[in-house]
Design goal:
With 227 residues, the chain is α+β, with helices and mostly antiparallel strands. Helix content is 31%, strand content 14%.
Amino acid sequence: MIINENTLTTLFTMFNDALARGLEMADVSWQNWAMTITSGQSLERYPMLVLLSTMREWIGPRQFNSFKAQYLQVINRDFEHSIAVPTNTIEDDQLGLFPVAFQQMGMDATQLWPDIGTDALIANAEWLDGTAFFAAARTLNGNTINNYTTDALSATTFTTAYDLMIAYAGYNGKPLGVKPMYLMVGPSNRTVAHGIVNTAAGGATAVNANEGLVEIIINPYLIGDYS
């Protein structure tokens, strides 16, 4: 194959198409537990607003409430993945496996986000209130918000955690209306998770009060101590 402008354009199109196929094939279930926010600079400060009140019956004049404003600072990082295509490989027209490599590159690119998102979860860094994100003693206007346990996953611990979360209260002691939607586990806890929220195979005689309460997410990056 002669290397010229037309050849390089054809190769670029072929590799780009393969990359796009890889991007389309990737698992995007991470979007259920992480948020995408547009960024335009290397360091971002995102305002996080907490409304210091709840709805009330409108009797008499309006009562103007305020926000508690804090900022979440995010420093962007650069990531790259490059593949070199040797000149001789192009001239000898031996490009058979390269489209597959670029397709895999596309799949790998989309998996960057759940990877670093999971890293952020297991790091359990300090949140806006100065307390670790997962903590047993966070308070909101005197009400405890406990989202941390070291107990192994089971039907009992799931029920305890679920009931605890739906009972979270905010300002004025009113329920926050939290409704857990997902149970995210590592691959080694897959069968345990399914046993908690699904009816046993072949039909179970006992009623499973947790059946269908949440959707299971298998996070392949939750392994080892974090499974």
